[in-house]
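Per your request, structure below.
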């Protein structure tokens, strides 16, 4: 059939208009969704026969860029016989976990207009995201929670000097500041540490086995104390050390080994909603165990940093603390505001570089 020139010209311009219209539609779709891998969303709309493939590519691309430190480890793609898309990844922080959940919720909303339904099923070791089509699982995204090795450093005995406290507070490392509750500078140091972002503890003096260690302690939790005295000491300590998130014992080799006193103490202390750190000044301490029995969030010291006052000794103990954390998942070290301890912590914070180990505040420890 030999069409006249006018008909050919009409068909030509019709084809041009169709091509331009499709191009405009495609560009518009990509632009509208550019923040969510728009080209795949656009192709899923334009080519419904291949919608599943384009949406799967959209999800996989989006998962790979949802969070900067999210590492997509494996992707299973169905063959010609069908199947379920499966993606596996791991994360190493609670913040990443929360950010991922928020971003996945946006992804679910984008898929909803195509008739897909998304659901999160959280767990202790992994979170699983399911995407259903017609109530049938179509896409599975498993996120394994791999907590980094955690180290908490606690520095005791603050309350004597503002300058001394300020040095440790300003360290480029997360340091927990434990403050005596009975000294003139206790409150000022506690507030200074808190407002500069440090975690604060009450460093409560407790009775030692050696009576000579008790003679110079005007504020001391002694064995035989009745409930009224125990409550009074806790309340006075909380007022003197505002913003405290927890408490650990100063000395206390006799007190923390006394079942009657520790039960009385933990019973009253459990009302405050704070954690307890057993300094383990005695191998026979029962404070950590009883704190757990009374439902108190509890921790236990693993390493003393400065039993000897030398720079090399403290550095060795810091490395020991890291090794304990690598073995057990977490470790707690206790030191004191000594010059060598400060210098060692400063040097360690400037040279230590292991992305698998993080220094945290006690309340951030994952001890599960």
């Amino acid at each position: 059939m030999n069409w006249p020139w006018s008909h050919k010209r009409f068909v030509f311009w019709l084809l041009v208009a169709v091509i331009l219209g499709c191009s405009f539609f495609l560009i518009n779709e990509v632009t509208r969704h550019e923040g969510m891998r728009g080209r795949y969303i656009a192709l899923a709309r334009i080519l419904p026969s291949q919608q599943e493939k384009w949406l799967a590519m959209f999800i996989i691309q989006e998962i790979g860029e949802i969070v900067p430190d999210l590492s997509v480890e494996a992707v299973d793609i169905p063959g010609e016989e069908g199947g379920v898309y499966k993606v596996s990844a791991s994360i190493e922080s609670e913040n990443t976990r929360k950010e991922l959940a928020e971003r996945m919720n946006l992804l679910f909303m984008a898929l909803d207009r195509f008739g897909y339904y998304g659901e999160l099923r959280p767990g202790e070791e992994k979170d699983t995201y399911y995407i259903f089509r017609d109530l049938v699982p179509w896409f599975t995204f498993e996120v394994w929670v791999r907590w980094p090795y955690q180290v908490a450093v606690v520095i005791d005995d603050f309350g004597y000097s503002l300058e001394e406290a300020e040095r440790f507070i300003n360290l480029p490392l997360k340091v927990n500041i434990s403050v005596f509750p009975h000294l003139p500078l206790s409150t000022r140091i506690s507030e200074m540490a808190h407002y500069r972002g440090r975690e604060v503890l009450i460093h409560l003096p407790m009775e030692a086995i050696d009576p000579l260690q008790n003679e110079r302690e005007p504020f001391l939790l002694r064995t035989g104390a009745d409930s009224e005295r125990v409550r009074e000491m806790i309340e006075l300590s909380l007022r003197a050390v505002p913003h405290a998130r927890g408490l650990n014992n100063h000395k206390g080799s006799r007190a923390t080994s006394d079942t009657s006193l520790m039960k009385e103490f933990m019973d009253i202390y459990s009302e405050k909603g704070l954690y307890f750190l057993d300094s383990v000044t005695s191998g026979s301490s029962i404070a950590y165990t009883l704190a757990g029995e009374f439902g108190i969030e509890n921790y236990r010291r693993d390493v003393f940093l400065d039993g000897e006052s030398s720079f090399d000794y403290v550095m060795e103990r810091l490395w020991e603390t890291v090794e304990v954390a690598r073995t057990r998942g977490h470790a707690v070290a206790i030191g004191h505001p000594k010059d060598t301890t400060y210098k060692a912590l400063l040097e360690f914070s400037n040279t230590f570089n292991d992305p698998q180990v993080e220094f945290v505040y006690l309340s951030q420890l994952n001890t599960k």
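Residues 29-36 have pLDDT under 50 and may be disordered.

Regards,
D.
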